[in-house]
Design brief:
25% helix, 2 domains, alpha+beta, 14 strands, Glutaredoxin, elongated, single chain, 7 helices, 284 residues, 5-stranded mixed sheet
């Protein structure tokens, strides 16, 4: 019998025969973080031959394997295929017996968080486990100069966007919902940095949309600029930080990257439990 492994970077193939999982409701809409392609693949997974397993990771990576020799073999292959796509930890969502998802453990998958001494020794970069670049920017309210390192002690969501960017414009209402859900928390900060346009244009667009989001200026009012300034005065190209726009990084309380995402996120509220966990448990 042919063994198949399907991952989000591949094509969705339909098994030749069907053996539907008889278990509590298997609803593709309930699978967290995966997009439309993942939901379609999950429907195929439900009808695939045993043995099978479907794995997921925070941020939207997924993979499944069907027609394996055993459930354990299916799980191992699905986890490996998922892990090839992401720095986040992949976990089992469902297998032959139905949904196996540990919802309580899901928001803890950004762990383990680094200690201060480990964070101080971390490389500077954009990968998970790196200390993110110490960007310089101006406050939207006071115009005073600041930098990311001043926000250590807080979980920081750094978001690169532009009002000229259609996917960015579609995503910002979702970020606004996240900010509202965070409420008055003092241990989480959102830092939105516009790219390739002046601060005034970005601010005016937000105002027209009635979006009250924390916009900071990192471009010195030069709309042609394709770079950002670091706290030490050096310049870094915006594409070194964001290969596409929008791009987002979430930093723990020591400034360590715990999550990143290139492109828009369709439901930021799904990340609220992760952010709260990082705010509660990082920085120690």
């Amino acid at each position: 019998m042919r063994s198949i492994v399907i991952a989000c970077i591949g094509l969705v193939l339909v098994s030749a025969s069907s053996s539907v999982i008889a278990e509590r409701t298997l609803d593709s809409l309930a699978v967290p973080h995966i997009g439309a392609r993942g939901r379609d693949a999950f429907q195929v997974f439900i009808s695939a031959e045993e043995h099978r397993a479907f794995s997921i990771a925070p941020g939207g990576a997924w993979a499944w394997k069907g027609e394996a020799e055993s459930t354990e073999a299916a799980l191992e292959a699905a986890l490996a295929a998922c892990q090839e796509q992401t720095e986040q930890r992949c976990v089992l969502y469902a297998s032959d017996g139905g949904v196996k998802f540990d919802a309580a453990a899901w928001p803890t998958l950004w762990r383990p968080f680094k200690s201060k001494s480990e964070a101080d020794r971390a490389s500077t970069g954009i990968r998970r486990g790196d200390r993110f670049y110490d960007l310089a920017f101006k406050s939207s309210s006071s115009g005073n100069s600041s930098k990311l390192s001043k926000l250590r002690g807080k979980v920081v969501l750094v978001h690169f966007w532009g009002s000229w960017c259609p996917p960015c414009r579609r995503e910002l209402p979702e970020l606004s919902k996240l900010q509202l859900a965070l409420g008055a928390r003092k241990d989480v900060s959102l830092v939105l940095l516009q790219v390739r346009e002046n601060f005034g244009s970005a601010q005016q667009w937000l105002a027209r949309q009635k979006l009250d989001l924390p916009l900071y200026d990192g471009l010195d009012d030069d709309p042609a600029q394709e770079s950002l300034r670091l706290a030490d005065g050096k310049i870094i190209g915006d594409r070194q930080l964001a290969k596409v726009f929008p791009s987002t990084y979430i930093l723990d309380k020591h400034g360590i990257v715990v999550f990143s995402h290139a492109g828009p996120i369709e439901n930021w509220l799904q990340y609220l439990p992760f952010i709260v966990d990082a705010a509660t448990n990082s920085g120690k």
